[in-house]
Amino acid sequence: MEKDRIFDLARDSIIELDESKAMESFNIAKEADIDLLELLSKGYSRGIREMGEKYASGEVFVPELLISANVMKKVTAEIESTLNIDSTSSKGKIVIGTVQGDVHDIGKGIVCSLLKSNGIEVFDIGREVPAQKFIDKAEEVGADYIGSSALLTTTMTVQKEIEKLLNEQGLRDKYKTLVGGAPVTTRWADKIGADAYCEDATEAVNILLNWAEEN
Q1: 156, pLDDT greater than 80
Q2: Is domain 93-214 given the CATH code 3.20.20.150 in the classification?
Q3: Which end of the chain has fewer CB atoms within 10 angstroms, the N or the C?
Q4: Could you tell me the pTM of the whole model?
Q5: Cα separation values, 138 from 134, 175, 184, Å
């Protein structure tokens, strides 16, 4: 099977909420010796982005979105396991989550996988995460970075709250903060005092690797 057709199969599995098809495309790609991170970015992640667009336009609702995210998580876990991604050569630690009031996991799983594959130790604290929990987890694990994702304009304020709490607790200089999500912009990151905005998973990796080199 041609590479593009395998990518399409992976994309379709997410759109169709089909875990069996997701695993089928994963196995086909592995047997064909296709780069699994390329499969992730050009196949599954394409599907999850389209699901996000469908949700925004009212074509699908939260239950379908969550099922597609779960399919994505399972196949991502298989990719991570196959690539034997670990933290033995860690280039830093990041605590990452989707902010309180937001049930979306779109994009975050992709970011986590790519960060892990590039030697960043990832602590994914899930979705609906209050601002203080980001800080508490970062303190607990000795993180270097805090990443927050907001997929709704109404939940972006939690990213601002993270910055406010870090300042109030005298911890702002201890961490580099990274914000992302569909409505988030560089202007927003600058306004709230975050260290960086990332448009997508690849940019997040590049930013963190640059930070790691600076340290």
Answers
A1: yes
A2: no
A3: C
A4: 0.69
A5: 6, 9, 22
